[in-house]
Design goal:
Blueprint lengths: L9 H5 L31 E5 L4 H16 L12 H17 L3 E6 L11 E8 L9 E9 L8 H16 L3 E7 L4 H6 L4 E13 L2 E11 L14
Parallel strand pairs: 4-5
Antiparallel strand pairs: 1-2, 2-3, 3-4, 5-7, 6-7
Helix pairs in contact: 2-3
The structure holds coenzyme A.
Length: 233
């Protein structure tokens, strides 16, 4: 296991009562989730939050990010890119993960032949909101599945796992942005995300190819949910 934290079962975590909210709008701070699933099981995709990334996993993440970019995926780079181009962005993101600010969530394919690369087929970050007054939600960033594994359902498994972790953590919403005109909204809709805002022509892919930036939200609970805010008292 690449994580230095012991896995905790979903069932066991669900049995732990959440801390009581301290006031209106205060997120329910539950124990830090370790993963949405347990040890990788051959034949079954699993999702796991990683707290500390070793060299082998860092190399795998770098290869995924580079290959996804070169396949035309929208994860922050314009192809062609090398691992050297992507490494600074990955390492900066991992600093935030190791500090505990952001979550790194990986999806493993469960395929036996994937063991050599720890089975990690895709990943995403869940970014701590650096703004005061916005602790009840987070950004989901860099959602990606290696091109060799796309279309196997792992993207939805990854997003569902992130949703469960965020819910158990007490978050109310997850936000992410996508580039319009790619059909990605339909993919995210499968995991409960819906469009809540659109910035016309905010992305200039190339001269003459402007795209909207679309903000999607996955609502996990509403402020009037009895588990959140003053209503719980
Ligand atoms: C987008 C991405 C994460 C989806 O992961 P995936 O594992 O291939 O997706 P899944 O196999 O779970 O697909 C689930 C459904 O979404 C659909 N879908 C997946 N990618 C899609 C896309 N780019 N556009 C439209 N629909 C898509 C699939 O067709 C599937 O629908 P179906 O079951 O009706 O066939 C992956 O294709 C990827 O890494 N793309 C490049 C990076 C990227 O663009 N990330 C998004 C940043 S906002």
């Amino acid at each position: 296991m690449t994580d230095d934290q012991p896995p905790t079962s979903v069932a066991a975590r669900r049995g732990t009562p959440p801390e009581r909210p301290s006031g209106p709008g205060t997120p329910v701070r539950r124990p830090d989730p370790v993963g949405a699933d347990l040890e990788p099981t051959a034949g079954r995709p699993t999702v796991e939050r990683i707290h500390r990334v070793d060299r082998a996993l860092r190399d795998r993440l770098l290869q995924i990010w580079t290959d996804v970019s070169n396949a035309g995926g929208w994860v922050g780079f314009v192809p062609p890119v090398t691992t050297g181009d992507v490494a600074p962005a990955l390492d900066a993101a991992l600093v935030r993960v190791h500090r505990g600010d952001d979550w790194l969530v990986v999806v493993r394919s469960g395929r036996r032949d994937a063991a050599a690369t720890s089975g990690v087929a895709g990943f995403a970050f869940v970014a701590e909101n650096d703004r005061l007054l916005s602790e009840h939600w987070r950004w989901v960033l860099r959602v990606q599945v290696h091109p060799e594994h796309q279309g196997e359902g792992l993207g939805v498994v990854l997003l569902d796992g992130i949703g469960r972790m965020a819910d158990e953590f007490g978050l109310e919403m997850l936000y992410l942005t996508v580039r319009g005109g790619e059909g990605l909204e339909a993919f995210y809709a499968r995991a409960g995300y819906r469009e809540v805002a659109r910035m016309p022509r905010a992305i200039r892919v190339a001269p003459g190819d402007d795209r909207d930036q679309v903000v999607l939200m996955h609502e996990l609970r509403r402020p009037d949910d009895p588990a959140v805010g003053a209503g719980a008292a």
